[in-house]
């Protein structure tokens, strides 16, 4: 082989060896970055559905009775060797007074107690035992604002209030001090519904309120009433207003009564309870300025008294429902289901007084009882045909 060819041969051989050596070397691994997370594709965000807040419903019942007008024949009939006991007089109606969440009564006569001297018409003062029988029969709230509030002066009012407080009875319409009168009476129920009770009277039979002591009795004054109603609405779910007004012994409300009830409705009162005529006046619904509905009993008559004229012996237990609906932050209150149980004051020879449900009366207790009972039902429901009558 020629020298030149040999050189080219050797160079070619060397090149092949180098190529083979390079092809035998393993490729270096590429180091993966530490702590690198695997990125998954993002899911589309679906907006959550806004759930409607659930409605919560609460309900209580309230009953109200008319005038506890304690004449001498009544407290003399209740006299015992140790004092006074009126329990037998309310025995037949006690189950119905106990049957509601709150029971209200118009205490027409001041219970100043025996030490101040008991008295009858025209200036009344009654035994403490009248308050005791109301408490034992299921009454929770009493109105003290009426035309007889000042019959015994401040002394009788203070004595009566002291007794009401001793038996844990809520009172409204007459007070022991200015500070006491500034407190809105709000009844808090276990069911979670609160009710404010206000009471006012047209006057006090010409007796003047002592100077500087307007707290002794609430007199009807629209400006004062409007202010108190607004305070009550802020503190309670519902407002019940007791009004001592109208004309005695008239079976239909006066224009003055209607005008005051309209005023109450326009100010947002839920229920008006009327007293003073001493006879039953019809139930009605009144529409307020804001479209609200106010339930009114223009007069609940005498519940227990010594008056003897037929219609003055008839009273009633007026019952209704307060319904509260809560939905989120919104609360609404509605008055529903008005009912009435007419009552009759039985007695013989000015003794053995007893308040009886009219539907239970026999002809021996009241002649032509069915006829009288139907007439009362027609009278009371003439403006509210759906008014139900309690008969069990």
Automatic annotation (TrEMBL):
Residues of the Capsule synthesis protein CapA domain: 61-307
Stored SUPFAM superfamilies: Metallo-dependent phosphatases
Keyword Ligase: no
Region (Disordered) location: 28-55
Biased segments, Acidic residues type: 28-38
PROSITE patterns: PROKAR_LIPOPROTEIN
UniProt feature, compositional bias: Basic and acidic residues: 39-55
Record keywords, A-Z: Signal
Span of the signal peptide: 1-20
Family, similarity comment: Belongs to the CapA family.
UniProt-listed PANTHER family: CAPSULE BIOSYNTHESIS PROTEIN CAPA, POLYGLUTAMINE SYNTHESIS ACCESSORY PROTEIN RV0574C-RELATED
Protein name, as recorded: Poly-gamma-glutamate synthesis protein (Capsule biosynthesis protein)
Taxon lineage: Bacteria, Bacillati, Bacillota, Bacilli, Bacillales
């Amino acid at each position: 082989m020629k020298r030149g060819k040999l050189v080219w041969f050797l160079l070619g051989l060397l090149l092949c060896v180098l190529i083979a050596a390079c092809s035998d070397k393993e490729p270096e691994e590429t180091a993966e970055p530490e702590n690198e997370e695997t990125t998954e594709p993002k899911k589309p965000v679906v907006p959550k559905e806004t759930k409607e807040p659930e409605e919560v419903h609460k309900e209580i019942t309230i009953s109200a009775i008319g005038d506890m007008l304690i004449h001498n024949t009544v407290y003399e009939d209740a006299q015992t060797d140790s004092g006074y006991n009126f329990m037998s007089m309310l025995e037949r109606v006690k189950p119905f007074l106990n049957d509601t969440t709150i029971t209200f009564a118009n205490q027409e006569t001041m219970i100043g107690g025996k030490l101040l001297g008991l008295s009858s018409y025209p200036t009344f003062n009654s035994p403490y035992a009248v308050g005791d029988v109301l408490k034992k029969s299921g009454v929770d709230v009493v109105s003290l604002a009426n035309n007889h509030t000042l019959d015994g002066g401040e002394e009788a009012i203070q004595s009566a209030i002291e007794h009401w407080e001793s038996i844990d009875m809520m009172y409204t319409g007459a007070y022991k001090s200015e500070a006491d009168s500034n407190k809105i009476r709000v009844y808090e129920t276990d069911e979670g519904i609160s009710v404010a009770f206000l009471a006012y009277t047209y006057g006090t039979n010409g007796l003047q309120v002592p100077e500087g002591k307007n707290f002794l009795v609430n007199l009807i004054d629209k400006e004062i009433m409007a202010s108190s109603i607004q305070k009550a609405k802020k503190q309670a779910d519902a407002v019940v207003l007791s009004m001592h007004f109208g004309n005695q012994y008239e079976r239909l409300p006066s224009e003055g009564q209607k005008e005051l009830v309209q005023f109450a409705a326009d100010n947002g009162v839920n229920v008006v309870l009327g007293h003073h005529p001493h006879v039953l006046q019809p139930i009605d619904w009144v529409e307020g300025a804001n479209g609200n509905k106010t339930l009114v009993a223009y007069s609940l008559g005498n519940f227990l008294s010594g008056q003897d004229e037929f219609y003055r012996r008839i009273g009633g237990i007026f019952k209704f429902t307060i319904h509260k609906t809560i939905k989120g932050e919104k609360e609404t209150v509605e008055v529903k289901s008005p009912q009435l149980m007419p009552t009759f004051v039985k007695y013989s020879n000015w003794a053995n007084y007893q308040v009886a449900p009219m539907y239970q009366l026999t002809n021996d207790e009241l002649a032509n009882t069915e006829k009288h009972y139907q007439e009362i039902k027609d009278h009371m429901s003439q403006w509210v045909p759906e008014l139900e009558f309690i008969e069990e």
